[in-house]
Amino acid sequence: MELPDDAEPEFTMPAENDLPGHPFEPVVIPTDLGDVVLPPTLTLEEAYRTTVFFVEQYLSLEDSPSIDFSLFYQYMLSDPAASEDFTDAVRRMKSWDTTL
Hints:
- By secondary structure, the chain is mainly α.
- α1 packs antiparallel against α2.
């Protein structure tokens, strides 16, 4: 079923097996990503997953990662409200007045 142009996309948090493992497991970040073409836009799910990957990358690279980032990572993976909070943050960004 196709949504009208003004309809908001439905966002649900990706399934747990779609997200990266525990932040303290070593993560091998591919080094050959330079050839990956970046799209001009991301879906909400892709943006959410990107945020998870970004935090995971920080946690795996730091010798003493911030406990705050560890807790944020756990929140993003386990709290059902995380997807709604993320969607609200996207709404906030889209309504941001850049002239301020």
